[in-house]
Amino acid sequence: MREAQFIKKNKDRWLSMQEKPATHPDETANEFIQLVEDLGYSKTFYPDSGIGTYLNTLATKRYLNIYKNNRQQKNRIIRFFVYDIPTVIGKHHRLLLISFILFVLFVAIGFFSAWQDPTFVRQIFGDGYVDMTENNIRGGAPFGVYSYGNEMLSFIYLFINNLSVALRLFAGGILLGLPSLYMFMYNGIMIGAFEYFFYSNSLMEASILTIMIHGTIELSMIVVAFTSALVLAQSWLFPGTITRLQALKAGARDGIVIAMANVPMLLLAAFFEGFVTRHSGMPLWLRLLIITVSFVIIAGYFVVYPIILKKK
């Protein structure tokens, strides 16, 4: 078809769209699709014609109108957590797996280091904390440290402290991830030594059932935070076919998105630690329920759901 025939055939429809644009979202979407098809045709057969610019202008207006009226834009925060974060996490599942494996390794190193060296726990936690915990064990309240202080103040302090750790882990990614790796390793070794301390006092099962009330989410978020650092470091070290600056921008964007997943999760972990873990006398079924639900939330949101989105 010659250009003149193409214009004559569609001119009235284009003018109608220009002068009387549709107001209903579905009609606007249909007009956008038609304009894109016409634009593609004109670019293919009349690449040097001005009609392409005209159609591009009409299509752009429809595109902006669609997204201005899109109901999802009214719920950007919901969309961010329901779609954006899981999508980015799914994109970096390999790094998430590496973070998890390293964390398990560091915890094991801490556990066996404390097993081999009786003074290791004191080197990690200090004499004051170890002596206090030993006194609590002798007094029949081995996890009494969680019952100290006001519940609300503890909740606020724990959230701020854990969030600062997560953000520092992410920020360390800009320095090739080395500061993040050190912090991550130290936290893993500390947790391993902590568990060995209770294991040596025949309280391993009790410690897991108590600490994992908040620890299921809290420890998982350490892994997620280190993943965000790896994403940032990888973009800096291995830019691929784009420039290092472009790769760094993309890595920083993805890393920030992953790091933001820590905010609601750490808020929930701080709530459990500040208000729930302190009640050491709660029944076993309730502990198991909280731990199981926490595990399902973490596994579902960070592993299963991103895979489902990726397939879609």
UniProtKB/TrEMBL annotation:
<feature type="transmembrane region" description="Helical">
    <location>
        <begin position="95"/>
        <end position="115"/>
    </location>
</feature>
<feature type="transmembrane region" description="Helical">
    <location>
        <begin position="211"/>
        <end position="233"/>
    </location>
</feature>
<feature type="transmembrane region" description="Helical">
    <location>
        <begin position="284"/>
        <end position="308"/>
    </location>
</feature>
<keyword id="KW-0472">Membrane</keyword>
<keyword id="KW-1133">Transmembrane helix</keyword>
<keyword id="KW-0812">Transmembrane</keyword>
<dbReference type="InterPro" id="IPR002798">
    <property type="entry name" value="SpoIIM-like"/>
</dbReference>
<feature type="transmembrane region" description="Helical">
    <location>
        <begin position="254"/>
        <end position="272"/>
    </location>
</feature>
<feature type="transmembrane region" description="Helical">
    <location>
        <begin position="181"/>
        <end position="199"/>
    </location>
</feature>
<protein>
    <submittedName>
        <fullName>Membrane protein</fullName>
    </submittedName>
</protein>
<dbReference type="Pfam" id="PF01944">
    <property type="entry name" value="SpoIIM"/>
</dbReference>
